[in-house]
Automatic annotation (TrEMBL), chains A, B, C, D:
Transmembrane intervals: none
Highest taxon in the source lineage: Bacteria
PANTHER family: BLR5678 PROTEIN, D-AMINOPEPTIDASE
Similarity comment: Belongs to the peptidase S58 family.
InterPro entries found in the cross-reference section: ArgJ-like_dom_sf, Peptidase_S58_DmpA
Species: Promicromonospora umidemergens
Protein name, as recorded: P1 family peptidase
Pfam family, one: Peptidase_S58
Length: 363, 363, 363, 363
């Protein structure tokens, strides 16, 4: 980080708060009990800026072979591995990986390696690895497909329940969003005793909107260079919750996760692969020979708080993914971090944030 | 209209402009050549505030039995008549009606009557009427199902290519949106020589956002009364274009139409039926014995301007639906018109609109 | 019935048995506890041969507002009313009606009347009536839309748990299938302590196959006359079960129900609306304010017997719908009953049925 | 092949003909102009019986980046790579590979290697490889994932327009279907001047039916051993045609391809991944910067012959996949070839085939 480069800060650390609902302890995906996140970051500047992010539900193991999961494909210009079985069975049976487009299949193969080697999988002969991706080909030499099995295993093995790193890390190392450097972001909300956690890999086009205020990328002195790239790459969103939702309900949650992209200014370009996966950690179903623990059902009439929590947490995770990212000089261009002072100035001018009192740091 | 009631005004008449794309002549659905709109409004205050809106593509007739059409169901808590055949054949074969939930089936039956009596339909023995609906049960006695065949036929027969009436008219007579009186709204955009027109029936929950600025319903002196109604009723969106898109592409357009609801503050509640239909007027296919005129295809790579036009036109149509609606005292409560002066004051305070110079009318 | 006309007989009464699984008591839809079936038959020969069939789940009432339901659209050239909400909520909230295409909307409206007048629905202001249809326009003057509210209410009110009438009755009065007179058919299977009941409205094209043996329509002396009608009209299939399946699983069941049409020779013509609805009667969810009874879940690994039961019961219901139908002289042609003796002769020739011993009745 | 083992023979070589439509020259997938098929077969008995089958459309190249494609997921218990983008864009942009479940991701990665190295792809930074799979884990050590990049490239490079090898070859080397040794099968039909070609990888459960006559697996002296494997693995079906269909229409074709599995006795088990992809070779669209050649449209009313051709060709391809396969002793059991003489005997007994005259070979 150069002297004049800003320190990554989360939205709330800058005073930017989305919605009125309380967050979990870390304001992160990992606030959902039993889910962990790990990253492997690959940087060999300026040519390579890529990586892997692993989302690991602890409940998957010898006694529990699947978790309820819903999927929404907002725009299917993407290569999500595992989609049709998730839709059919309403379940995931592996951790979820995020990575770069052309490396998604290597990552899926490595995920198979990982699960086959896990306890209880000695006799497993079918498996549905789930791997999402976005295209980091502007900042990274995506054709090189640098993701190796070791990178995937490291992300899986290193997953923790701490606040995940955000910004230029893991699968977000080389992404660009809304004309700025994008990356990994996370947030959470607590409603009705349940936690909803979101994690995003932001890499899509449009004009950044922060709490209603546009922050055009060209307002920056040294803006992101496009290298003739088409706008619109993708956004992968993962939602986890300990609310005992079934797959159909989780599909409804996943839809709202994509809808929330509009709040930060996505233009939903045709070349963007916009996907959301939403899974639930409690009880049923166990798609194995051991019966799942019957779970209390949530009535569809009671889902609105979960929907609201999801949309707020996705919006904030997307903001976090940009605000924590740092300017990156890459393979085919440069992506500028969104300037915190610009954002704050505009939000203050719009009355969204109060004018700083004496003694408040500038950003 | 009482003395102190505001005059309905469209967003642009108040200086509120969505996006940079040019509009069509009327800034309306009917800017798309060959589509007409008609309304039948039923008011017997305070008990009945309901009606029918008819969207009539001229191209449907003896020589052309269908138009390409795509459908997106953002949230299927609704009763859209005709959905599965639209999805299968990628086509509509009748005008599209909008009305009140419990009257949708009477309206569909009347639409059958209308088409069977049309020239060229003497031997027609199958037909897929398309009827959308939202629930106007707060302001109208929806259980009475007051829509009769004559109301439907009047809307169809009265359809014109003029600027459609907006606000408390037709299927929007009794709707409530974002805590204010909703209704019918329309807007259009012109991109690449094509026109994209939108028409909405707004009736959904959330907090109104105008160009990024929240306008909470409780900021009003005499707010909308809820009568214990659940939030979230529905939003029907219809998009028409003369761009020669096929059904799959129109489905992509329809998705963006629903996504745009986020821009005005929809909370995408679980009880809201959020649907978009998008149809295309040129050439192919004729699903009859007469071959359709081969149409120039639009490459998917070239759809982004159409997507952008759709989202801007839906956003503005939704704003128009509220700004042109008037306070309505209904069957089970009152819905307040959104106060123009409040909106303008807030947009000026946020710097979205300039401060009025001397001589500018207050609203 | 003329002197030389055959008596309607069910497949099993002719010795034709599909599969090895046991049937329920009546070998009928109504073997599923808590479901009833009623018919209204409208005949004014030769012009009108139509009607309504009502499927009434007793569980729907003041305490239980919905039952889990899945839908599969094998070919969406049909007008199924209520489809999108069934898909969204995975539930039905009304009885299911079957009728003639152009009368489906009148029937839906009448179903709304019926439910609004039911105990506990005094305050109901939204409702998703579910009405399936096939096109009986060859034998009945479908443009006349003769179904009135009274016909629908009679079918609903007359529903019983007895063995439903089959053949030329209710919604099957005027249907034609596989070149013969079609109609209503029903069958059931018992697996793992659960009952699977099916009811079909057969009206589709192809070449009849009975247990693998083709029975071409032109093998008959006085075959069905086509009146220039396009082949392929539709098939509506309803499956009920007391297995506690959720909506996703019921969607899987519904898919198999349509797949089973291949066994009797459906050609899955493009103009045929081939739909299956599958619902489950136990416990959850109650989509109202009263929580649903938590139900034991069925693991997806345990569904294969249910799938097998469904396919066998649909196949047999389809055969029953033809074997119990009688030759009908209608509005635009005649539909010949499939001759039992021809079927038996061919099945014996193929070795599917044993040669009749002395004393066995010819058919 | 041991002395007493039967020679692989295609259905027609045994006198078994499906339907009345004419076949193409080879009665094979490759009868569609511009499509080639290649296999890499991996056998290291008894442990490994697996491979790769490549379907290569010549039209894909520098001037044409995509072909219209439809997908139907009959039962999504499978890992089809590339599904969501095929659905979104209605197109394939790579050859299609078939292989073994756990090797699908390695194969997809190798397919990326292949395409990136192709002329015109020097700047390609996104790609949607399409790889289908079924599970050959009974006869092959699937956990070993023996498919290497070289195997995939060999299948692609070796693809020809000749009659493809069938039976125990390529992706069909280790599959088991309907209680017998399955494999690769192919067939074609010519309708209305268009060719419809099918290629299947058969690996699913049920009871074999040949032209209506059941051939139970336990009628064989040395039947297939199950090794405790669950029934039901999968079936991948690929359909190609030179009819100028769009993606929606090809989706309708794909549905019929899966429906046709019922004709040979599939039980559509829940653990079976039953997928069909259907693509069209003419003209539009080119999803690149070069506009696609406008193609004559086919009206949906004219699709029935294509549907019939598809269903007949899938049925015959499935029969060919079994009749050309040979008994295989594998990793966890043995799969018996379906005995031709048994099939012929039963078909003659049922009157489906004539009794052999003197001089006709026994099988």
């Amino acid at each position: 980080m150069s002297d004049n480069e800003q320190h990554p800060r989360r939205a709330r650390d800058l005073g930017i708060v989305v919605g009125a609902l309380p967050t979990g302890r870390h304001n992160a995906f990992t606030d959902v009990p039993g889910v962990r996140v790990g990253h492997t970051t690959i940087v060999d500047a300026p040519r390579l800026h890529t990586g892997v992010t692993a989302i690991v539900p602890d409940a998957l193991g010898p006694d529990r072979r699947s978790l309820p999961c819903g999927l929404f494909v907002g725009n299917g210009f993407g290569k999500l591995v595992g989609a049709t079985q998730v839709a059919e069975l309403g379940a995931i049976e592996t951790p979820i990986l995020l990575t770069a487009t052309l490396s998604a299949f290597r990552a899926a193969d490595a995920l198979v390696t990982h699960v086959l080697a896990s306890p209880g999988h000695e006799e497993t002969r079918t498996l549905n690895p789930v791997v999402g991706e976005t295209n980091d080909g502007r900042l990274s030499d995506i054709r090189a497909r640098p993701i190796a099995e070791s990178h995937v295993l490291a992300a899986l093995d290193g997953a923790t329940a701490d606040l995940p790193e955000e910004g230029c890390v893991g699968a977000g190392t080389g992404t660009v969003a809304l004309g700025f450097k994008g990356g990994i972001g996370t947030s959470s909300r607590v409603v009705g005793g349940w936690t909803v956690g979101t994690l995003v890999q932001s890499n899509f086009s449009g004009t950044l909107i922060v709490r209603g205020v546009p922050i055009p990328a060209d307002a920056v002195d040294e803006p992101t260079t496009s290298a003739g790239e088409p706008d619109g790459n993708s956004c992968m969103i993962v939602v986890a919750t300990d609310a005992p939702l079934d797959a159909r309900q989780l599909g409804r949650v996943a839809r709202r996760a994509v809808f929330a992209m509009a709040r930060v200014g996505s233009d939903f370009a045709g070349g963007s692969g916009d996907y959301a996966l939403a899974f639930s950690t409690p009880g049923a179903p166990s798609s194995g020979t051991t019966p799942g623990t019957p779970a209390r059902r949530v009535d569809d009439h009671d889902l609105d708080p979960v929907f609201a929590a999801t949309m707020d947490a996705v919006e904030e995770a997307l903001l976090n993914s940009l605000l924590t990212a740092t300017t990156t000089v890459g393979h085919r261009g440069t992506a500028a971090a969104v300037p915190h002072d610009l954002v704050l100035r505009r939000l203050r001018a719009a009355g969204v944030l109060p004018q700083p009192s004496a003694g408040t740091p500038a950003s």
